[in-house]
């Protein structure tokens, strides 16, 4: 019975037509990413409705976002590192290695999350000083402290939910992964208005709602591990050694670079924004950052439907399916982002006003949003290339492409451009970084696609000889 199920899973992942397979796996992840994106913006929306403290509260949420990005970075590091490996092993028929990797990735994330939660609260003073700026008022600093302390308590749950979610997706169980994330998002969205507005808990309520949502997702995803053909997490399978650590680093370091550098760049962006208008400018930048995260979340969900197809079939030596899946995702991802970009550019003012009808906030937000939407379609090729490189185990190339948008190009840009162009330099930084990232991504993608094509041709010649 168990053998039959294993064969069915293999057949499904390696013989289902690629467009159909990616679509089936992507629909749940797109839904989960969109809802996750909505609840990531929910805190910003509802604290923006707090009478008399809306601008400061919005800025505080934005200042803590880099910290959340760090927590997410390590969650994706352990999740994608273990998920990529176990998927390739399943494709190669190596169940034991897959099971051990799943448990190792989970336990390592749990221990690391607990460590961050403890150290973060011990060194909260210096941490808030790093996240904020001397241009930010005292009220915003106090709210930043309150919000960050509670968010840190949820660090172990946040990390582990990302790990389990990634592992489930890479096994082709996208529906289980979706249910877990969506449930947590719904809890967060329901609790936000109750805690923030009804009970008047302000940013403290926003943080509590976020953490309770994460705990909900964690519990449901943990239960999902025991369903169907999914690999069970077990302490018996924990075997942390050099081999598994290296595999997690190879498969997860691109995610760590991508998310970790997003935290650094986000902090630098907040500091630069504060220099040109203080709290209102930080609020405007925060609104745009959360909006863009929501816009790209659907693309990331689409790419997450591609990742298990990519890694599983690469492990099964069906590289023609990897190439087909890549171009399928790039084509439709570009079309989708182009439509979204046109709409957002046209209604930029209305979008920012949805969060805050403050002229000083809107004036910064609408300009920044328009600059970023101009190059939004480029992200389809950028994201899919990075996901392909990471999924097939090309750690170095994947790390470079993952680091480019929020690190290699963004960090120098946010340091240099504001000095040359003032506030406009802050507003165009992400646009410039996206263009440069697109340019460096092209040769990485083409070289790997050509190599796969060559391998396919060689395999075809060997088959014909037989």
UniProtKB/TrEMBL annotation:
<dbReference type="GO" id="GO:0046677">
    <property type="term" value="P:response to antibiotic"/>
</dbReference>
<keyword id="KW-0813">Transport</keyword>
<dbReference type="GO" id="GO:0015297">
    <property type="term" value="F:antiporter activity"/>
</dbReference>
<feature type="transmembrane region" description="Helical">
    <location>
        <begin position="205"/>
        <end position="225"/>
    </location>
</feature>
<keyword id="KW-0046">Antibiotic resistance</keyword>
<protein>
    <recommendedName>
        <fullName>Multidrug export protein MepA</fullName>
    </recommendedName>
</protein>
<dbReference type="InterPro" id="IPR045070">
    <property type="entry name" value="MATE_MepA-like"/>
</dbReference>
<keyword id="KW-1133">Transmembrane helix</keyword>
<dbReference type="Pfam" id="PF01554">
    <property type="entry name" value="MatE"/>
</dbReference>
<dbReference type="GO" id="GO:0005886">
    <property type="term" value="C:plasma membrane"/>
</dbReference>
<keyword id="KW-1003">Cell membrane</keyword>
<feature type="transmembrane region" description="Helical">
    <location>
        <begin position="59"/>
        <end position="80"/>
    </location>
</feature>
<feature type="transmembrane region" description="Helical">
    <location>
        <begin position="147"/>
        <end position="164"/>
    </location>
</feature>
<keyword id="KW-0812">Transmembrane</keyword>
<feature type="transmembrane region" description="Helical">
    <location>
        <begin position="401"/>
        <end position="422"/>
    </location>
</feature>
<feature type="transmembrane region" description="Helical">
    <location>
        <begin position="176"/>
        <end position="199"/>
    </location>
</feature>
<feature type="transmembrane region" description="Helical">
    <location>
        <begin position="101"/>
        <end position="127"/>
    </location>
</feature>
<dbReference type="GO" id="GO:0042910">
    <property type="term" value="F:xenobiotic transmembrane transporter activity"/>
</dbReference>
<comment type="similarity">
    <text>Belongs to the multi antimicrobial extrusion (MATE) (TC 2.A.66.1) family. MepA subfamily.</text>
</comment>
<keyword id="KW-0472">Membrane</keyword>
<dbReference type="InterPro" id="IPR051327">
    <property type="entry name" value="MATE_MepA_subfamily"/>
</dbReference>
<feature type="transmembrane region" description="Helical">
    <location>
        <begin position="368"/>
        <end position="389"/>
    </location>
</feature>
<dbReference type="InterPro" id="IPR002528">
    <property type="entry name" value="MATE_fam"/>
</dbReference>
<dbReference type="InterPro" id="IPR048279">
    <property type="entry name" value="MdtK-like"/>
</dbReference>
<feature type="transmembrane region" description="Helical">
    <location>
        <begin position="21"/>
        <end position="39"/>
    </location>
</feature>
<feature type="transmembrane region" description="Helical">
    <location>
        <begin position="428"/>
        <end position="447"/>
    </location>
</feature>
<feature type="transmembrane region" description="Helical">
    <location>
        <begin position="326"/>
        <end position="348"/>
    </location>
</feature>
